[in-house]
What we know:
alpha+beta, Arc Repressor Mutant, subunit A, Alpha-Beta Plaits, four-stranded antiparallel beta sheet
Amino acid sequence: MWRGPVVQARKNAVNAVKWKIFSLHAKLITIAAQKGWNPDDNPSLAAAIAVAKKQGVPNDNIDRAIKKWTWEDTSGVQIQEIIYEWYAPGGVALMVETLTDNKNRTVSSIRSIFSKYWWNLWESWAVSWMFHKKWIIFIDPKVHDYESIEEIVFETEAEDILMEEWYIKIITNTEYLHKLEKILEEKTIEVYESKIDYIPDNEIEVNDFEKALKFKKMIEAFDEDEDVNTVATNENISPELTTKVEKFIEENTFRT
């Protein structure tokens, strides 16, 4: 049976994800370079470059992103960081951080997703006051022992270390991330992933299936948007309900 279109569709999907990753990291580097183009003197830029390299972003892309800020690349356009904030029914807060070179496009896209899932747009600082922007380092507990990692972290300036179901999470700020990763590297600790996250002061439980399903689909829509960098929420959906929602989505997803 001829499966060409299906295979090509999968390749296109993979390429789209890769393109978004490269594009977002380039924007993050461009914004970080505003504080100084030399990563040795700019911890934010050093961190952005290190994370981009872990995600497979080519050196040429990184160099171009820096040059866009230093104006060596005259084709560069200004990158803006815009944050959108909402409250969902029941009091769940959501914050979407975007990186864009076209504000009108981004506003239109974000509002479209937002309206589809019946949320109400709020003004700036409506929910962001309850979130704290941090860098999260993920380590695989199958590769490294938690107690050993904990001993190392306690000797550093990291803010916290947590043992979760699948990963060991180390929480730190942007200025210290690059130094912390170097310390872990010197201790032969393999970092699985590093990413920015927004940690809420409190969580709101979501127990209704329809609300959880709508919330899950909305997050997926934001994740697919080319300008969305990070989505932060304070919802707490139980593992059982999450499994039920994911099973429903899987069973109702059209396949070619």
